[in-house]
Design brief:
Oligomer: single chain
Bound molecules: S-adenosyl-L-homocysteine
Shape: globular
Number of strands: 15
Strand content: 15-25%
Strand order of the largest sheet: 14-13-12-11-10-9-6-5-4-3-15
Number of helices: 13
Largest sheet: 11 strands, mixed
């Protein structure tokens, strides 16, 4: 029977309304009540939904469920960053990272198990591509993080606890979100729905390695902040670092970005640029980048490279990064340097590996099914 139940997590509002009407003969406002319970109050159990009639709750339990991914491990960095590994099935995991800052809390979520883009400097690429996440698995990351963060703040008093922990969501975890367009877009709609997570479109960021056709499609269909992993100021170098560039070169990619901003009436695209020692961090690269960005609705975010086992790259020295940023700023291109967070627990950009092939995880398989959870404090 369980297989026939519909998972309500991640169902767009219109679909949820249709579901309650068709399967349960209920009015649309029931769907709205359900959304409030699921997202605002983090309920996973129909019996707890006290403003729904008992009979309706029982009916719901027969045809529907609220199923979220299971947490395998939680790690807490010395800087407060938290990383959860979530079980996708017997052997596969994905990672979700929460980055607290004084004025906001950013949740970095995954869109796929593994990634097919094969960027040479990214740990996720090493595990290859496994599968797309479903809408429920994408939204489930937010649902779980919210629950965990609320629980961990239970001891705090008043405002701190009542204030929302997650103020921003970024698709900068594992996977290429535009390669999973079909599931990522409905998930983003839930993030922005006022009965969902109610985030403004500026607080939901999709980061892409540059799937040009999907950027055009997104421009028509969904209004969110766009970040693009540029990493190189010319095609020769970008072909090497971000292989998708061979299919969609820089001029096509940038044309899609400017179109996106026009169409969406947006402010700017954020270009991510990972600083690799001796590879893309020279003054001439900065000058080439200026030519691409000058006068455009663009911001450049320089990312200190995070090392991972087996990588051939090194992080640019801080002085090289500062010089690079100086050249951009001097020529009127807005550039900032990303602060590295959570690197002591391998939670920083490009370090998410999901350990899909980790043998201990395979061996632990059976045990994990029973719901064991471990918290590793670092
Ligand atoms: N596939 C998407 C989103 C995931 S990567 C994309 O490419 O944008 C999120 C960001 O982390 C990207 O800008 C990515 O290039 C960067 N990144 C990947 N590996 C990194 C590493 N080892 N150190 C620092 N940043 C890295």
């Amino acid at each position: 029977m369980a297989g026939e139940r519909v998972n309500l997590l991640g169902l767009p509002r219109a679909q949820l309304e249709a579901f309650v009407a068709q399967r349960l003969g209920a009015k649309p406002f029931r769907a709205r009540q359900l959304m409030k319970w699921i997202y605002r109050r983090g309920a996973a159990d129909f019996s707890a939904m006290s403003d729904l009639k008992q009979e309706f709750r029982v009916q719901l339990g027969e045809v529907a469920e609220i199923t979220v991914p299971q947490i395998v491990t939680e790690q807490v960095s010395s800087d407060g960053t938290r990383k959860w590994m979530l079980r996708m099935d017997e052997v596969q995991g994905i990672e979700t990272v929460f980055i607290p800052e004084p004025d906001r809390g950013t949740l970095c979520i995954s869109s796929q198990v593994g990634c097919a883009m094969d960027c040479t400097f990214c740990a996720t690429a090493q595990q290859g591509f496994n599968r797309n996440l479903s809408v429920a698995e994408i939204v489930g990351q937010v649902w779980l993080a919210q629950r965990e963060l609320t629980e961990s703040r239970a001891g705090e008093s008043g405002e701190g606890r009542a204030g929302r922990a997650i103020t921003n969501i970024v698709f900068m975890g594992m996977g290429e979100p535009l390669a999973n367009y079909r599931n990522v877009v409905p998930a983003m709609r839930i993030f922005m729905d006022d009965l969902g997570y109610d985030l403004s479109r500026r607080r939901v960021t999709l980061s892409t390695s540059g799937l040009v056709p999907q950027i055009y499609k997104l421009a028509e269909e969904c209004n969110v902040a766009l970040a693009v992993s540029l990493h190189a100021p010319n095609d020769e170098l970008r072909n090497e670092l971000v292989p998708i560039n061979r299919k969609h070169p820089i001029d096509e990619l940038l044309a899609a970005c400017w179109h996106y901003i026009d169409r969406q009436n947006g402010r700017s695209v954020t270009f991510e640029y990972v600083m690799l020692d001796g590879v893309n961090d020279k003054p001439e690269h900065a000058r080439q980048l200026v030519r691409l960005m000058k006068g455009r609705p663009a911001k450049v975010n320089l990312i200190p490279f995070n090392v991972f086992p087996g990588t051939r790259y090194r992080r640019s020295p801080a002085a090289a990064t500062a010089r690079f940023r100086g050249i951009l700023n001097d020529h009127g291109v807005i550039a900032t340097t990303r602060k590295t967070r959570g690197d002591d627990i391998d939670a920083a950009c490009g370090q998410l590996a999901g350990k899909v092939t980790d043998r201990t995880l395979v061996r632990l398989g059976a045990k994990l099914v029973s719901g064991a959870r471990t918290a590793v404090e670092i």
